[in-house]
Amino acid sequence: MAANPGAEARPYGGGPERRPRRARDRGQAAIEFIGFVPILLLVAFAAIQLGVVAYAASQAGTAARAAARTDAYEEADTDPAAAGRSAISGWLADGATVSVGGGEDESVATAGITIPSVIPGIDNFGTVERSATMPRD
User: Fold this and answer.
1) Cα(28)–Cα(46) distance, integer angstroms
2) Hey, CA dihedral for 78, 81, 87, 90, is it positive or negative?
């Protein structure tokens, strides 16, 4: 017990008794938590942003398949690019582009969606593009 000379041993074999906390140590945990909150928020926003990126990629694939399928169908009465845009969720459709091409035997459609940001102050996450190829009827 040389490390703490004034401490007495506890009667049932425990370590030395705890000294009472000083008044100026009160609230230390709250201040440490407040310092850690920005890091927690940054990690939370990054996780949400990753989900938005994955969802935008999924929606681009859905739009490309819908446009290629519509273009491949000979008797379609709908514009393939419009069919692709209508397959996208409304809040992502504003920044979407759908182009259709291909040859005699196949239809190729490419859809691009601008990735929206959920992180304040960062607006440019780029565009995600997906392509789909369908055989013509």
Assistant:
1) 28
2) negative
Q: 102: which strand partners? A: 107
Centroid of chain to Cα 15:
49
Q: Are 64 and 109 in contact (CB under 8 A)?
A: yes
Q: Say if residue 131 is exposed, middle or buried (CB neighbours under 10 Å; 0-12, 13-18, 19+).
A: middle
How far apart (Å, rounded) are the C-alpha atoms in residues 80 and 136?
A: 13
Q: What is the CA radius of gyration of the chain?
A: 30
| Rounded Cα gap, residues 44 and 39, in angstroms | 9
What is the number of other CB atoms lying within 10 angstroms of the CB of residue 55? 16
Tokens, residue 101: 């091409």
CB-neighbour burial class of residue 73 (10 A; exposed 0-12, middle 13-18, buried 19+): middle
Residues 49-67 have pLDDT tens digits of 999 999 999 999 999 999 9
pTM confidence score: 0.74
